[in-house]
């Protein structure tokens, strides 16, 4: 078993009087882990719980052995929300410099991060004028500041051009190879093959957990989408992990 | 609270403002222009200008800072930047004080410009020391910033945030003594006026206009600052690291 970076036990989150996650248990290890499931299944809520900004009703979430969101983790976990979460009226470099300062990093860290997402050429562009894909890479650069031990990315590849998506996945793997655990959510099933490990999620439950090959093999399916369907139809609301 | 982070927030807010020329003009030039407009309106009755001019020097910074802060912080909440900052080593007070610091600095410039125009060009008659006009202006602006930070927690959209202007700011302008001196208001309204922060800011300006003694001015500034601190504390209570 890979050493565990995130350990979640009995996580329950209630939003608007409705349980979004109820008694969720999961362990995330090193490498690139994909959190796949349809829109509205609770992926963002789960990721928000891991970075410690989600109000939690019950259960424990620990990251690198410490309670999620606790002070020692705040410069060790990089997070990108579904939006770019950067300032549209600042330049790319100003955005990076600001977040670097908050993290207590030297200004050079900003440049390194920009180079990692291949945006050095746009450093003086105002973030709001960039294309959607470029803006999401600025957000990613912020999440990469200070080489976090865990990188949590909420749908970073949505709506991107296939070439850019391929490049981003390559980048996630380079980051993971350098020792950062990467947790990426997506509602696009065909991104599954690009992950080292998969968490399939539906209606607030993790319905499968394993490598893409394991999950496909367990259902005798050719692709993850078919495996997903087979699991959903097979369990018909029951719990199988 | 970490001074490094507070300062980073303040510098960032100022950088954003520098890039937004229209907002900067609204913050710095508009108060001067409105003051000049008022002077023009009361050209034949300068005594009226001398009465309401100082009050407006108190109202403008409060008004514009409230507006700008409530919208910018709402953007931080809805744009995901606040959530990102809360996953980083940023305390709630770093965020609030960073904003207060940035807008306080802008307010100092604004107050100096507005006071310079009012006294230098428009012959506003002031008995008290000019520099206190700037001090009151800054206290006022910080009050507006603090209240703006606080109310932004109760708005979901920028449209809703703007609605706080007529709801929270206009009643204070009506009751602060600008239209009818406070002691001539119906008793109940006078009592209400006395617990509204803008009343004390305007009171400070009026003392500056009519008296060379500064005791009351400092008392009023103290009250305004106390209101601002209370609003910042309430603002801190509404800023949650963990949200639904």
Order of helices and strands of chain A: EEEHEEEHHHEHEEEHH
Quick check: average pLDDT of chain B? 90
Q: What would the principal axes of the Cα set say about the shape of chain B?
A: globular
The outline of chain A comes out as: globular
Folded structure, characterized:
The complex is a heterodimer of chains A (241) and B (244). With 241 residues, chain A is of the alpha/beta class. Helix content of chain A is 32%, strand content 26%. The model of chain A is unreliable at 237-241 (pLDDT under 50). Chain B is an all-alpha fold and 244 residues long. Helix content of chain B is 79%, strand content 0%. Chain B has helices at 3-19, 21-28, 30-41, 46-79, 81-86, 92-121, 130-151, 158-175, 187-194, 197-210, 215-238. In chain B, helix 1 crosses helix 6, helix 4 (46-79) runs antiparallel to helix 6 and helix 6 packs antiparallel against helix 7. The longest helix of chain B is centred in the N-terminal third of the chain and has 34 residues, at 46-79. Classes of the chains: A alpha/beta (241), B mainly alpha (244). Chain A binds chain B through residues 15-16, 48, 51-56, 69, 71, 74-75, 77, 79-90, 94, 98-99, 101-104, 126, 142, and chain B through 4-5, 8-9, 11-12, 15-16, 19-20, 79-81, 83-90, 240-244.
Features of the shown structure:
heterodimer; A: 241 residues; alpha/beta; 4-stranded antiparallel sheet; 7 helices; 10 strands; 26% strand; B: 244 residues; mainly alpha
Question: Which helices and strands appear, and what pairs or packs with what?
Answer:
The complex is a heterodimer of chains A (241) and B (244).
Chain A: E1 4-15, E2 18-29, E3 32-36, H1 43-51, E4 58-63, E5 66-67, E6 77-80, H2 92-102, H3 108-116, H4 132-144, E7 150-153, H5 162-177, E8 181-186, E9 197-202, E10 205-210, H6 212-219, H7 224-235
Parallel strand pairs in A: 3-8, 3-9, 6-7, 7-8
Antiparallel strand pairs in A: 1-2, 1-4, 4-5, 9-10
Chain B: H1 3-19, H2 21-28, H3 30-41, H4 46-79, H5 81-86, H6 92-121, H7 130-151, H8 158-175, H9 187-194, H10 197-210, H11 215-238
Helix pairs in contact in B: 1-6, 3-4, 3-6, 4-6, 4-7, 4-8, 4-10, 6-7, 7-10, 7-11, 10-11
């Amino acid at each position: 078993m890979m050493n565990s970076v995130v350990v979640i036990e009995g996580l329950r989150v209630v939003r608007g009087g409705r349980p979004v996650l109820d008694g969720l248990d999961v362990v995330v290890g090193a490498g690139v882990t994909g959190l796949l499931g349809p829109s509205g299944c609770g992926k963002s809520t789960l990721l928000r719980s891991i970075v410690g900004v989600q109000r939690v009703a019950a259960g424990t979430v620990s990251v690198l052995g410490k309670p999620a969101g606790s002070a020692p983790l705040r410069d060790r976990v990089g997070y990108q929300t579904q939006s770019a979460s950067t300032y549209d009226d600042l330049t790319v470099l100003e955005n990076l410099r600001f977040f670097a300062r908050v993290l207590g990093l030297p200004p050079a860290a900003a440049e390194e991060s920009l180079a990692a997402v291949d945006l050095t050429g746009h450093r003086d562009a105002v973030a709001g004028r960039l294309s959607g894909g470029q803006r999401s890479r600025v957000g990613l650069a912020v999440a990469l500041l200070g080489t976090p031990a865990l990188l949590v990315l909420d749908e970073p590849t949505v709506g991107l051009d296939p070439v850019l998506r391929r490049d981003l996945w390559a980048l996630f793997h380079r980051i993971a190879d350098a020792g950062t655990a990467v947790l990426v959510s997506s509602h696009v099933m065909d991104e599954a093959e690009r992950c080292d490990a998969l968490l399939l999620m539906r209606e607030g439950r993790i319905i499968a957990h394993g490598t893409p090959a394991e999950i496909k093999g367990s259902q005798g399916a050719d692709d993850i989408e078919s495996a997903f369907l087979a699991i959903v139809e097979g369990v018909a609301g029951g719990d199988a992990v | 609270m970490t001074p490094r982070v507070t300062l980073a927030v303040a510098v960032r807010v100022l950088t954003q403002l520098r890039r937004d020329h229209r907002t900067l003009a609204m913050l710095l030039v508009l108060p001067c222009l409105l003051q000049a407009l008022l002077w023009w309106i009361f050209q034949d009755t300068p005594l009226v200008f001398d009465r309401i001019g100082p009050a407006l020097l108190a109202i403008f910074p409060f008004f514009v800072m409230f507006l700008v802060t409530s919208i910018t912080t709402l953007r931080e909440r809805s744009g995901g930047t606040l959530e990102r900052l809360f996953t980083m080593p940023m305390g709630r007070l770093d965020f609030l004080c960073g904003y207060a610091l940035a807008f306080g600095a802008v307010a100092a410039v604004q107050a100096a410009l507005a006071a310079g125009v009012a006294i230098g060009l428009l012959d506003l008659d002031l008995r008290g020391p000019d520099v206190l006009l700037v001090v009151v202006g800054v206290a006022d602006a910080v009050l507006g910033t603090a209240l703006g930070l606080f109310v932004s927690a109760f708005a979901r959209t920028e449209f809703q945030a703007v609605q706080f202007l007529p709801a929270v700011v206009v009643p204070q302008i009506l009751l602060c003594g600008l239209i009818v001196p406070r002691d001539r208001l119906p008793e109940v309204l006078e009592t209400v006026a006395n617990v509204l922060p803008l009343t004390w800011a305007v009171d400070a300006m009026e003392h500056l206009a009519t008296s060379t003694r500064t005791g009351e001015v400092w008392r009023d500034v103290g009250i305004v600052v106390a209101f601002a601190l209370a609003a910042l504390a309430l603002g801190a209570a509404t800023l949650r690291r963990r949200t639904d």
